[in-house]
Amino acid sequence: MLKFLGRRVALIALLGLVLCGSGALLARAVASDPLPSWNDGPTKQSILDFVARVTKEGGPDYVAPKDRLATIDNDGTLWVEQPIYTQFAFAIDEVKAQATKHPEWKTTEPFKSILAGDLKGLAAAGEKGMVEVMAATHSGMTTTDFDKTVKAWLETAKHPRFKVLYTDLIYQPMLELLDYLRANGFKTFIVSGGGVEFMRNFADKTYGIPPEQVIGSSGVTQYQMWDASPVLVKQPKVLFVDDGPGKPEGINHFIGRQPIFAFGNSDGDKEMLEWTAVCQHLCFMGLVHHTDAVREYVYDRNSDVGKLDKALDEATAKGWTVVDMKNDWKTIFPPAKTSP
Amino acid sequence: MLKFLGRRVALIALLGLVLCGSGALLARAVASDPLPSWNDGPTKQSILDFVARVTKEGGPDYVAPKDRLATIDNDGTLWVEQPIYTQFAFAIDEVKAQATKHPEWKTTEPFKSILAGDLKGLAAAGEKGMVEVMAATHSGMTTTDFDKTVKAWLETAKHPRFKVLYTDLIYQPMLELLDYLRANGFKTFIVSGGGVEFMRNFADKTYGIPPEQVIGSSGVTQYQMWDASPVLVKQPKVLFVDDGPGKPEGINHFIGRQPIFAFGNSDGDKEMLEWTAVCQHLCFMGLVHHTDAVREYVYDRNSDVGKLDKALDEATAKGWTVVDMKNDWKTIFPPAKTSP
């Protein structure tokens, strides 16, 4: 985390020096903008205003640092979720990698379709098929072995369109937002429908969010002794689904109090935003709306992945902040890593 | 938390001034001892040595601050658990308080026994009876209403022997240990078999541990709309039991990584200590052994509450630190609050 921040600070400092040659005034403006990848306008201003109000000591909306909790979705809010959730891409690759150990998969759906590269056949297996794939690839091993597999995959697997690592497909404006919140005393949490043990393998390095501040869907683990040494073995059984109403339930389960700031991008975030909206302080609710087909993707009401329909209506009706990705974000991904 | 620390610092400063009159040398010795309520000896020294080694930059056992996690049991480790767990005393009082709303309890066990003050009858109902009492008093209300009830009870209910609030029956040496760990960069967590929502109502004020660092047994909650406003309603269904093997499972579920320091007092902590013992750094495992009948209680292998048998054998065999309460602790409770 320190290393990560250090790198970013060094980059900003370097940028400042370069700009200094062409105009000292501009350099100062860049250095003082905590959200440089956000275009000026009402969206950016709503964030700046909120943070200014809750941090103004003696002001009517002041919130003590210990109560400044921010809960932020992951898939589609912090990183790309199209064309399929990254964790599902991992599961598909794992089926292929483990196929020789499971000869029965050649004749059993949905594994047969995956091995034949038939994504339509996989889709036909529906949610039940997906659950089977997740169970087969996310259980039966120790948590330590699972972590190693996930880390190795994240270091090599490439996104089918952008041809870069998945962890390069994080949103630069949201990284700046996370830094800005933390610089203003916020404790930042991920609250995602994704698997908690999958996310904990990259959230610290990628977002500066330690494992204990990552909340997500969870499987059952079982404490066992292997060769007289204790291990936790992942079981093919769901403990907790952290999506939709499961998000406020998960926030209560893991955090035990309400956030004052929440950001999502889909109907799966609706209840988390509603729950945040009744916080005991000034509250901020935000949505990322994917409106940029050239630099990222365009999708909302009719998407299979990250469907944004009811939450968009509620955000509009209640005046929550909605990011128009195309117009509000100057850049999408961290510099010098991706080209669309 | 700041207020809490402030009070303690003020007390220590005052103590320093008083002692200063009788001997400046002694005052300096007191001021420099981070664990003044611990008698000098191998137990105290094992803690001081461990912290010195993991915080010594450049040393062979150095652990970066971000990896300094401490997980500490609550009942019997941070506060009194005899003659019955405090949360169960709360549940019994709640049955009495809610009895007029439940006329059927007059004729239904185990409620009938509780209302008649017949603790033997309650004991005869066994674990099933206890589960019924817990379900009846810990579900059906919103999390907000439950919190209000717990807080009100903690402000008035008195311990049957010590005649003081339960939150006054916390162990002064363990408070000093928590402060000492945090002053050395540790993140302190409670990991208890007790109910997480019960503990989160006093852990911050009492121990300086915020709700999101309190891990415990958990019930299911359900997100609902009451009068068009979102609430979380506590359900009579167990989500997670954080005891025995459930402790390392819970640490993985909530924290996602291993502690390097763990403290408990019963067989329910055995697996947590075993799991800590295989951490990737220098690891510390400790147990509180209740050996002081005069100032607190004496119990271990044959106790119904906080049974310490197998974990004591394992601690002895493996050289874990075992606190002999009578001889290792100079004081038991915070000053000027209790007399036995």
Short structural description:
Chain A is an alpha/beta fold and 340 residues long. Chain A contains 15 helices and eight strands.
- What is the level-2 CATH architecture name of the largest domain in chain A? 3-Layer(aba) Sandwich
CATH superfamily descriptor of the largest domain in chain A: HAD superfamily/HAD-like
Total domain modules of chain A: 3
Question: What is the H-and-E element order of chain A?
Answer: HHHEHHHHHHEHHEEHEHEEHEH
CATH topology of the largest domain in chain A: Rossmann fold
SS content category of chain A = alpha/beta
Characterize the main sheet of chain A: 8 strands, mixed
Which two protein chains have the largest interface (Cβ within 8 Å of the partner's Cβ), and how many residues from each?
A-B, 37 and 36 residues
Number of helices of chain A: 15
Give the distance, in angstroms, between the N- and C-terminal Cα atoms of chain A: 28 Å
Q: Could you report the average pLDDT of chain A, rounded to the nearest whole number? A: 90
List keywords for this structure.
homodimer; 340 residues; alpha/beta; Rossmann fold; 3 domains; eight-stranded mixed beta sheet; 8 strands; globular; disordered N terminus
What's the structural blueprint in terms of helices and strands?
The structure is a homodimer of 340-residue chains.
Chain A: H1 2-22, H2 24-32, H3 42-55, E1 69-72, H4 86-98, H5 111-115, H6 119-124, H7 126-137, H8 143-154, H9 172-183, E2 187-195, H10 196-199, H11 203-207, E3 214-226, E4 229-240, H12 246-254, E5 261-264, H13 270-277, E6 284-291, E7 298-299, H14 310-318, E8 321-324, H15 325-328
Parallel strand pairs in A: 1-2, 1-5, 2-3, 5-6, 6-8
Antiparallel strand pairs in A: 3-4, 6-7
Helix pairs in contact in A: 1-2, 4-7, 12-13
